[in-house]
Amino acid sequence: MRIPARFNGPPGSGNGGWSAGAFAAEIGEPSLEVTLRLPPPLDTELSVTHEDVRDGSGNLIAELAPTHRANFSDFPGFVPFAEAVEASRSYPGFTEHPFPTCYVCGPEHPDGLRIFPGPLGDGRMAAPWTVPADVELATIWAALDCPGGWTALVEGRTFVLGRIAVTVDELPKPGASCVVAGRPTASSGRKAMVDSILYGESGAPMAAARATWIAVA
User: Fold this and answer.
1) What is the pTM of this model?
2) What tens digit of pLDDT does each residue of 151-200 get?
3) What is the CATH number of the domain that holds 19?
4) Distance from CA of residue 84 to its chain's centroid?
5) Please, are residues 100 and 92 in contact by the beta-carbon 8 Å criterion?
């Protein structure tokens, strides 16, 4: 498999959430834990097994492990769409963004998901999301990635995704108006642990993620 250049995160590498979701789709696992060991390379042939992902030189890109289905009640609570729209107006990435061309949350990506999470005032962040026509499993993993990460990024340090465990119960329909919410859960040294959840138009949870982000210099 390859990660097309369109699905970038930091310049020159794949968006962590999309890449991890593509690995999950490749082995047919909607619930999976992915630990990134190297930045996922773009437009590079990768070998994916149920245990790991490697490039043509044998370099370890990611480790894969089974995970239990998430209990959605343990994740951030429902946020009405209008409230998410209002929060999004204060998206910190509009004024300062470490990776402004990120496929998920980059204001300068010409064809991205345009998920711009803003603060709710209680530590959570939320964003409205209009589901694209080409939605697939990797799209949902990507949508869950940055809204959680931004709860760490507001600390003023730059973080990148290190590990993410996702449960997807259902894919939203193209054009659906959804909400993604994230919250911080813990931090230790360079690590920030975060949760995120996707709510469909009915308000029912459809997917959730637990992730660890790593601060970089």
Assistant:
1) 0.96
2) 987 667 889 999 999 999 999 999 999 999 999 999 998 999 999 999 99
3) 2.40.160.210
4) 17
5) no
